[in-house]
Automatic annotation (TrEMBL):
<keyword id="KW-0408">Iron</keyword>
<dbReference type="GO" id="GO:0046872">
    <property type="term" value="F:metal ion binding"/>
</dbReference>
<dbReference type="InterPro" id="IPR007197">
    <property type="entry name" value="rSAM"/>
</dbReference>
<dbReference type="GO" id="GO:0050066">
    <property type="term" value="F:L-lysine 2,3-aminomutase activity"/>
</dbReference>
<keyword id="KW-0663">Pyridoxal phosphate</keyword>
<dbReference type="InterPro" id="IPR013785">
    <property type="entry name" value="Aldolase_TIM"/>
</dbReference>
<keyword id="KW-0413">Isomerase</keyword>
<dbReference type="GO" id="GO:0051539">
    <property type="term" value="F:4 iron, 4 sulfur cluster binding"/>
</dbReference>
<keyword id="KW-0949">S-adenosyl-L-methionine</keyword>
<keyword id="KW-0004">4Fe-4S</keyword>
<keyword id="KW-0411">Iron-sulfur</keyword>
<comment type="similarity">
    <text>Belongs to the radical SAM superfamily. KamA family.</text>
</comment>
<keyword id="KW-0479">Metal-binding</keyword>
<dbReference type="InterPro" id="IPR003739">
    <property type="entry name" value="Lys_aminomutase/Glu_NH3_mut"/>
</dbReference>
<protein>
    <submittedName>
        <fullName>Lysine 2,3-aminomutase related protein</fullName>
        <ecNumber>5.4.3.2</ecNumber>
    </submittedName>
</protein>
<dbReference type="InterPro" id="IPR058240">
    <property type="entry name" value="rSAM_sf"/>
</dbReference>
Amino acid sequence: MKYQSYTLKNLHQIKLLNDLPDEIVDSIKVVGQVLPFKSNNYVLEELINWNNFEKDPLFTLTFPRKEMLKPNDYKIVKQCLNQKELATAVSLIRAGLNPHPAEQMEKNVPIFNGIPLNGIQHKYRETMLAFPSKGQLCHAFCSFCFRWPQFSGIKEKKFALKNADLMIGYLKEHPEITDVLFTGGDPMIMHAKAFEIFIDAIIKSGIKTVKTIRIGSKTLSFWPYRYLTDSDSDELLDLFKKVTDAGFHLSFMAHICHENEMSTDAFKEAVKAIRDTGTIIRTQSPVMQHINDNSENWSNMWRKQVSLGMIPYYMFVARNTGSHRYFSIPILKAYDIFRKAYMKVSGVARTVRGPIMSASPGKIGIDGIVDTDKGKVISLSFIQGRNPEWVKRPFFAKYDEKAVWLDDLKPAFGKSNFFFNEHDVLLKN
Ligand SMILES: *Cc1c(COP(=O)(O)O)cnc(C)c1O
Ligand code: SF4
């Protein structure tokens, strides 16, 4: 299949939209001014169920919808369409959508030889994130994307690593880093040759402390032809093989929200092609209202992933950014969905952890509800902490059925702070 992308500019070329009510198409144009829209022929033709588009999870994952904006914001953008006030209105609305959650910009960018390394994040001791500059797009965008600001031309906030030298220098100074995770956007949007520069730099550096290279990608479900028929598919797979042959563990972190994303032959063939290079595929996704907020979907996904040789890894809670109002579900509902799905799968799929809030202090798991003499409390613990000492220490929040994020939770048992707020020791970069 040959890749054809669609954005607002060529929206009119999507023939499948012709049969939809005008109102729906109008709302794509309006909300698409604020939240990024991009899709492609594979997602549109093979993944979306157009007969039931109103309720179809892949339609909602792809297209901006009216309900994603506050009614008043929607009205404002609609009135400003094609007017010179549009840009101002849009940037005001975007600023109100918490474009930089979890304080990524302030806290995670390391300093090396006195310069901030803008294409790198180092938050958890063992793992460094690398954002290659050519990998800062995706083959299609998710309407809930937590990296939406970088696709919206909010320039100064864009992470980007132009070459590998600084990354190698940083790795040499930080022998505690065992994992380099390439992310974006989607690093698999890069040409194999562009990605090879970073991979070769690591292999040739002779750094012994890095053991695992990870690639965070949505391509398996948004563009599996990346591994089948793109002009550099073979080159890319050879590169994966080169990594595993060099003795690294290569882990492909596949972002998959819904079982329908695993329904095509192309998906299965791509999984096989990647696995044939010695790469292990792990899977992760947030749990989102209107997309995958039911346990059936999760247990089906995990079972199917295992049967295709993939390893379920993380279920996340929707981040507090973008159209959080539309996608978020209470953390206790996420917990309920996780538990019901986990119950239904065998041990080989219980490698998955969740639900997890990837928040400023760390990745915090919701472990359960505990009945105490003083009433019900929520039990939580860190899976990753900005301070590694925080990991796996149970802590308790007041029972709250409405809380959708860490900020909504209050410490239980009359405490004024959670333990990690009391001594907020930052990891020294
Ligand atoms: C999730 C995440 C990682 C990876 O965490 P693992 O638990 O090792 O998968 C690394 N860095 C940041 C900033 C993250 O959010
Ligand atoms: S694949 Fe990830 S980075 Fe790309 S649009 Fe979706 S959520 Fe955003």
